């Protein structure tokens, strides 16, 4: 039986770069226009699975929404914590989050039952 070289999963290794003490270590920005979405240490890192519509839908005739499973999020307990975010109309107890400056999205979702928001880490960039 081969010995494991590293006990840390790839997700845990990656998260060390942008998570400190369970919070976002760096500023969170839109990956398209660079607009600031969250300030440093303003949200909690969580690992959960959620299907979100792709940011760019392929052209198809049946107009079926294509989804992607996202596994890492920043949890924002109060919508007033955001520096800059847009909300869509409600779809199945959720509002999708988008960049308020360039409308790119969805970058996450807002749960209308709990009033908590979740920013998909794979759909944003970090900066100091």
From TrEMBL:
Q: Name one GO biological process term.
A: small GTPase-mediated signal transduction
Determine if Transport is one of this entry's keywords: yes
Q: Does the keyword Transport apply?
A: yes
**Any single Gene Ontology cellular-component annotation:** membrane
| Bilayer-crossing regions | none
What keywords would UniProt list here?
Guanine-nucleotide releasing factor, Protein transport, Transport
Q: Which Pfam families match?
A: Mss4
Which superkingdom heads the taxonomic lineage of this protein's source?
Eukaryota
**A single GO molecular function, which one?**
zinc ion binding
Q: What is this protein called?
A: Guanine nucleotide exchange factor MSS4 homolog
Q: Which organism is it from?
A: Bombyx mandarina
Source organism phylogeny: Eukaryota, Metazoa, Ecdysozoa, Arthropoda, Hexapoda
